[in-house]
Amino acid sequence: MDLIRWLLRLPVRAAQGIWFVLRGVLRLLGTVFGAVFGEVTWRAPRWAGTLGSASAASWGGVRRRPGLSAGVVATVLVLALAGWQAERWWKSRPQPPKPVAISAHVGAPESTRYDADPVTVNPLTITFSGSVAPLDKVGKAPGEGVAMQPALDGAWSWSNDRTLTFTPAVDWPVGQHYEVVFDRAKAFAAQAWVPETKLGFDSAPFKLSVANSEFYQDPEDAGLKKAIFTLKFSHPVDSAEFEKRLSLTLAAQPKPQPRKFVVSYDRKKLSAFVHSEPLTLAKDAGSIDLRIERGVRAAAGGTAFADASDTLVAVPGLYSLDVNGMDAVLVDNTHFEPEQVLNFQLSQAIGEKEAAAAVQAWLLPLYNPDTPEDQRGDAPYDWSGQTNPPEKVLRAAQKLDLDPVAGERDYNATISFKY
Fold it and tell me: What confidence tens digit (pLDDT) does each residue in 217-245 have?
């Protein structure tokens, strides 16, 4: 009982000790202020007297009934401990799983396969990161929970529990922006949480590209020369709009010269072939420029091609002729006997007679005449990479008899000789 009384008096003693220290500090401050500012009279506030009376009455009750006071303190401690344990239990109890956000990826439809027979229209595909489709809708239409803006006739279908597709009844409009809108309550399973209810995409835009460009010389008529361009389109082209934005210009002095042209198309107008008018070669080499202004559209309409395009084709001069390559090969003749053949690849087609009159060949000597005999060794001299050997080397070389190999046409860009 004495221990309980001591424990009960401990807080009071602590409070008395704190008040004693506080009172001493206040008296010290009063003395300092009095010395500086003159004597100061301080009166305790009313609440301090009330608090002191209540503390004295409480301590009197504790001394009169120590058992009851100990019971009250024990009860408060037990309740505090029970509350702490209850809080720990509440926080550690199993929690229901939080819904995981499911993301959606829009696979915009690729350009329609116009070259296929029949024409193949690619669907829109929306792929979710988790299972979202109601079980009774898998393999079927989703119903009223999915809509496309602007509206487009077609069929929605759940391919599986996380893949939704839309196949249009007609071809996709060119370069059109769409939004797919979902009603969560109707489109998805109850346990699925899809934050995004509006997804945007664009149908394939109209595109054009220059697939090939070349300077052409007729193999039967060397005087017929022209530039030819091949263009490819992602959608059937509006030919009238395309040709209005097309121009050909020959670079010439003193100013560029417009050139006429003709355009032909394949059956589905997915390719265009632009042929310039016959070209008369100038003295110097030049180029011809195919320019396509912006604004070319598909035959079905939609957004136009936004960029302009320029493509140049080199046009040789009247006297320009380049050797683009040369090689020596072994080929079998009609008797299946190997023959040595020398091939020349030229920048433009020429006649065999002119080529035969202009080409000469030598078998260079085994050793360089400038190399002394005692320094030649056993290996032959490496002539590779050398051009225009001096006259003394040619005098030591063996001139070859070249026999022209007849080509399929009178004029060819590849000339061959047997030797």
Answer: 887 776 788 999 999 999 999 999 999 99
Cis peptide before 150 (omega within 30 of 0): yes
Spatial neighbors of 297 by CB under 8 A, at least 6 apart, are: 174, 206, 237, 238, 241, 303, 304, 305
Classify the phi-psi angles of 301: left when phi > 0, otherwise alpha if psi is within -120 to 50, otherwise beta. Answer: left
Whole-number pLDDT of residue 247 = 94
Would you state the pLDDT for residue 97? 65
- What is the rounded distance in angstroms from the CA atom of residue 229 to the CA atom of residue 209? 11
At residue 369, the pLDDT reads 85
Which of 213, 263, 273, 208 lies closest to 240 in space, CA to CA? 263
Q: Which residues make beta-bridge pairs with 290?
A: 248, 311
Can you read off the two tokens belonging to residue 58? 């409480």
pLDDT, residue 44, reads 61
pTM for the full predicted model: 0.61
Q: Which residues of the chain have pLDDT under 50?
A: none
Write out the two tokens for 182: 């979902």
Tokens 């209850």 map to which residue?
Answer: 86
Distance from C-alpha of 367 to C-alpha of 378, rounded to nearest angstrom: 10
Q: How far apart are CA 251 and CA 262, in angstroms?
A: 19
What pLDDT score was predicted for residue 300?
Answer: 92
Residue 385: per-residue pLDDT:
75
Which of 400, 402, 394 shows the shortest CA–CA distance to 418?
A: 402
